[in-house]
Amino acid sequence: VDAGLDAKIGITSDITLDLTVNPDFGQVEADPSQVNLSAFRIFFQERRPFFIEGNNTLNFPVTGFNNNNLFYSRRIGRTPQGEVLTDPEEQVDGVEEYVKTNNYTTILGAAKLTGKNKKGFSWGVLESVTSPERARIDSAGVRSSEMVEPLTNYLVGRVQQDINKGNTVIGGMLTSTNRSLTDENLQWLHKDAYSGGVDVVHNWKNRKYYISAKTLYSNVKGNAEAIRMTQEAPERYFLRPDNDHSNVDTTRTSMTGTAGTLIYGKRGGKFIYEAGYTWLSPELELNDIGFLTQTDVMTQWTWFQYRVLN
Q1: Burial label, 193 (beta-carbon count in 10 A; 0-12, 13-18, 19+)
Q2: Distance CA 223, CA 7 (A)
Q3: Which residues pair with 276 in a beta bridge?
Q4: pTM, whole model, 2 decimals?
Q5: CA–CA separation, 135 vs 284, rounded Å?
């Protein structure tokens, strides 16, 4: 027997509260099959209705890189990250161990509050708790279980303020991921992960010209093994031969990184252009609740275009 609850409550004409308890996303369209021949992560579109509605409010993209974002809702209810390693030497009468793991982590509950008032102030807050997951092991009738995903709390907050009839927009975002790491097999995960950012966009001359700036940070905490694995992960590869500015420190228990973007451009008229600069520091880490494919990057771009619209 299983039960759940979904609710949408209009608190006022400007504020909406979405609630879900033990949601069932069995009717959601499945992801297309992909073969990943690289060491980098694959981005999948969000398809669950609870997270799709109002997701533009909780959006904070890292400009200059496809899909990189402070918040990636697919982290909530993700496939359990731990694995059960079977030991051939522990076979009973030649029978190997059988392991069964849930494809997704159970979402115990989630609440999302979004709104925008008449003064141009918009906000979004999402709180979610996922349950600990255990893999079931059967070795010739001898049954046991092993933790593959800890009890985790996710919190995301985003605010934006429109100024001067929407020509200027100032915003900020904060996220936190907190895990209850009570099992020794999962100590390689981050115990706490925080990120945040501030962004501003200004338009003038009937939105013909624009300038935008964005800065963000991240901080992850865990034991020495967890931070060592983060330093050696494919997003940064501190051990690569050409890296002469970031070294693996096996004693670290936390890591803090930064990133930012500055863009200036013209979008109106026959002659349009844009120039921008983005940096991501080597220590940046967003993948506990965000999406990040690569760090340790500085990139700049400039483009011009002449167009005639009919």
Answers
A1: buried
A2: 39
A3: 263, 301
A4: 0.91
A5: 31
Instruction: Give residue 166's pLDDT band: very low, low, confident or very high (50, 70, 90).
Output: confident
pLDDT digits (tens, 9 = 90+) for 61-112: 987 567 899 999 999 999 999 988 876 655 555 667 888 988 889 999 999 9
